[in-house]
Design a protein that fits this description.
Blueprint (H helix, E strand, L loop, with lengths): L2 E5 L4 H16 L3 E6 L4 H6 L3 E4 L11 H4 L8 H13 L3 H15 L3 E5 L18 E6 L23 H18 L1 H15 L16 E4 L16 E3 L26 E5 L12 H8 L5 E5 L15 E4 L4 H4 L5 E4 L3 H9 L4 E3 L6 H11 L2 E3 L7 H13 L1 H14 L4 H14 L2
Parallel strand pairs: 1-2, 1-4, 2-3, 4-5, 5-6, 6-7, 8-9, 8-11, 9-10, 11-12, 12-13
Helix pairs in contact: 1-14, 4-7, 5-7, 8-12
Protein name: Glycosyltransferase
Pfam families: EryCIII-like_C, Glyco_transf_28
Length: about 425
Amino acid sequence: MARILLCSAPLTGHVAPMLAIGSRLAEDGADVAILTGTRFEDRALRAGLRFHALPPTCDYDDTKLGERFPGRERRPAFLRSLFDAEQMFANLLADQYHAVAKAVEAEGADTVIAENLFMGALPLIGSELDVRPKLFAVCVSPLMSTSVDTAPFGPGLPPSTGPLGRVRNRALNAGARSIVMRRAQAIATRRTREVIGEDPACFLLDWPLHADDVFVLTTPAFEYPRTDVGDRLSFVGPILPAAPRDWPTPPWWDRLGTDRPVVLVTQGTLDNHDLGTLIEPTVDALADSDTLVVVATGGRPVDSLRRTAANVVVTEFVPFSLLLPHVDVMVTNGGWGGVHFALSHGVPLVVAGSTEDKAEIGARVARSGAGVRIRSGSPSPAAVRRAVTEVLADTRYGVRARALADDLACHDATKSISRRVREVAAST
């Protein structure tokens, strides 16, 4: 029987797919535990997994990141992403690694499965194969790894695979490592030396490529082609939560039966501390339009919204799997899970996000043809209205979104991951 330790940074969008993977592995006969933030202990136990808590030094509540990382929320989008790379990920690497070693010993684990931003896995790839557990990486975000075919991860630049494009990519990647990500890499190097006495084996964002296998939670049609790393990637499709069985239908649900286009707008559950960045501009943009606008605040109180109109309904939470069959276009800041929810239902998108990985996700939406990217994390109402109008008027966006839905439906991520992990375990 495989004895498996899952590892995740304490971020809801990262933990949720890892819990789903763990639950499937347990159902298939593996012995599974998870190492993550204390806030997720009950969810882990309900999923049938044993739980190991990250130590307080690298645990935090992702609904209160401003408290745990002072000054983070005051930084503009690009600088906030750099801050996260340095302080939320690289700087916590050593304590995460110690926690992994402790949990592996306690569990007798022969396999570690870590999501791609759990940097405590970085020191593991420098260990000899015969002295460390098998290591699998799960990419719960767009691929961040360096490639000759892509620009550096972050600003959302499109790929370029021709000779001149590859020259561009090499120059930009070199600059990203030596200038933009220099401090983050230096922190990762220092923390890695603390725990194994050696430099890390690779650039910190590239560690998944050095795992024994890499599971990418999307389809190749939604990712950039990478001729130099493609054979190391297993595209398994997204992991999306099922609809709750006992969700009470709200009073406004009957309004979805309208002949008017239905527009869903959300800022997700992480970057929603200021609803004025996208939700309120969308309400203003569509207030006098012939649409029904459904606002999902991602857990923020309904009264946090300072804009309203007769054609707007507001809810803190709504199961997307139930709502999206009624939606004609989704306006989002570009969360990985939300975008895949829309695509899995064939719903075209308007994406306007600039924090975390959202510029990259928006660029992938635009390249896929399934939506429009607004190159701002806080667009004007006029920009939102133009984008929504374009997506509703041009049927090609819906056609492409439905094609991606058919592609995504061919994948079963947890089944594929469980099968592969158990195959490797059985062969060793």
